[in-house]
Amino acid sequence: MNDKKERITRNRKQALVWGLSLLPVILAAAVYQKLPQQIPTNWGFDGHVSYGPKSTLWTLAGMAPFLAVLFQVLPFIDPKKKNYLKFENVYQSFQIFFQIFMLIMVGIVITESLRPGTVQVSTLVTAMCGVLFMFIGNIMPKFRQNFFCGFRTPWALSDETVWNKTHRLGGRLMFLAGILGFAGAFLPWDRAKMAMLLVPMIGATAVPYVMSYVWFRNISKQNPQ
Question: Is the pTM for the entire model greater than 0.90?
Answer without folding.
Answer: no
